[in-house]
Amino acid sequence: MRPVLSQILIGLLTVGAISLPAMAALGGDVSSVQEDQAHMKAALQIRTGQAYTVHELHQESGTVVKEFISPAGKVFAVSWSGPFIPDLRQLLGEYFDKYSQAAQTRGQRHGRAPLMIEQDGLVVQTGGHMRAFTGKAYLTDKLPEGVSTDAIR
Amino acid sequence: MFCLCGSLALAIGCGGGSNNSNSNNNNGTPTQNTQPIAVNGGPPAAIALSGIYPNGAFTSVTVCVPGSATNCQTIDGVLVDTGSFGLRLLSAAKGGELTLGLPTTNIGGSPIGECIQFVDTSFLWGPVRTADVKIAGEQASSVPVHVVGDTSFPAVPNTCSTGGLDDDSLAVLGANGILGVGTFQQDCGTACSTGTPPTAAYYQCPTSGCVPSLVSLTQQVQNPVGLFASDNNGVIIELPAVNSPQPSVTGSMIFGIGTQSDNALGSATVFTLDQTTFGFTTTYNNVAYSGSFIDSGSNGIFFLDATTTGMPVCSDATSWYCPTSTSPIPFPVTNQATGGSPHALTFSVGNFDQLTAGSNAAIDDLAGPNAGTFDFGLPFFYGRNVYTSIAGTTAPGGQTPYWAY
């Protein structure tokens, strides 16, 4: 059960494309969420619970990105759901290269299978198909105590 | 997400499809609506480069310069994919077969380019061109198609790649193209035609460089089946049962559902797509998982995870299961769509490394993880007739889009 205490609609950013350096979203601190919001031109919704806070970024394209923030203010997980895979360079931050290297090897010969990457505490899972993608990434050693990875969705 | 039509248009079908009433050609004889398909490991040139493509169903597609009966090319080794929408052909420049010069499409006076991403974050990039598409006796005219690996087109934009593999070569794609005959008419829909252009979908490509662009529904890459003159409301994939791994098996792709004597829905159970999850529910071990889908372009059954299934992933291929048991492990599940009838079935999972070690292409028991949900890939099709209807068309069995088997 995902704890939800409040829902605050922060606002819709409608400015044009802003070129920002890639920010450390996964593993970064809470301020990086605002940078992601600007980068994705998304509406931000914040839901605060006891174990963690969820920042929901609603992209105009229909994809919803969630960033899970620990009481220590660190992004310990991200998830996505919608017609497009979000910009993982932005979302995975310093973990992008590790993910990308694993994704490039594919390790499954032909065909396009969901990714199931587990390396050095980084987990990346993808699913879905054209027009309906899902996925999540989390840091196993940064999960707040008592948080199930099933709640990351 | 579904194609937008007025109520009148909806009554007669939309998205290019008409309806199921007319399946005869001008001579009054039924249109030849059956196309052979083969699970044969893929095009020989691809096998030579990168080995057998397990559980890929391949067919041939003829493309012509729009309006021409002679300026045509038949492309073999095209993957039949009910999980995507639209025809994508690999250019000869990157090892594919396509050499035919097809006209570009334009927006604002500049050529249209497209980036498509797949579940593993791999991608395809190239121009949108138009072709008359001919399969069996069916024809769709002036269809926007995706030409990939086209070295005459601007290079892949940075925003197209999100870190996955570049599929734009024969060795990586393992096919000369992908024929997307799934549940939608366009490969993107209104997400690409209204609002802010998505960062990795359609682009306009002036000489100064490609930039994301909105593209109308009719200019988007289209499921050719929905544009056929008849038999345009979906497809049936028919493949034989595969009780032990085989070098190849052959079957049929039949166009239309309930439009001719050979494509009746019969007693098949219908699974209408839930409008939120774009799938149905699968119950395993008394737990219901939503978002299930049926996809001939997935070359295994991808479901749940190692913890839930009790099977480890392969040490050298984490997208596949490698159970240690010497005999295949059965998984009894029940599928059910919202408001639909339940259907129980059992599939089996074997060891990926062992099953793919030989030279077999049709392998029933290949499966891999897919956390929290089920993707019923090609092994599910063995021994079943699987129906895929297209959104916005009329078909027997109720509201489209649906799968049925």
Structural account:
The complex is a heterodimer of chains A (153) and B (405). Chain A has 153 residues and is an alpha+beta fold. Chain A is 16% helix and 33% strand. Chain A is built from 3 helices and 8 strands; from the N terminus they run βαββββααβββ. In chain A, strands 1-2-3-4-5-8-7-6 form an 8-stranded antiparallel beta sheet, covered by helices on one side. The N terminus of chain A is likely disordered. With 405 residues, chain B is mainly beta. Helices cover 7% and strands 36% of the residues of chain B. Chain B contains 6 helices and 25 strands. In chain B, strands 21-20-15-16-23-17-22 form a 7-stranded mixed beta sheet. Classes of the chains: A alpha+beta (153), B mainly beta (405).
Q: Can you describe this structure in just a few lines?
A:
The complex is a heterodimer of chains A (153) and B (405). Chain A is of the alpha+beta class and 153 residues long. Chain A has helices at 31-40, 88-92, 96-105; strands at 7-11, 43-48, 53-58, 64-69, 75-82, 116-119, 122-129, 132-139.
Portion in strands of chain A: 25-35%
Class derived from helix and strand content of chain A? alpha+beta
Q: How big is the Rg of chain B?
A: 20 Å
What is the number of beta strands of chain A? 8
Which pair of chains has the greatest number of interface residues, and how are they split between the two chains? A-B, 43 and 65 residues
Number of helices of chain A: 3
Question: What sort of overall outline of chain B do the alpha carbons produce when their principal axes are compared?
Answer: globular
Side by side, the strands of the main sheet of chain A go 1-2-3-4-5-8-7-6
Rounded mean pLDDT score of chain A? 80
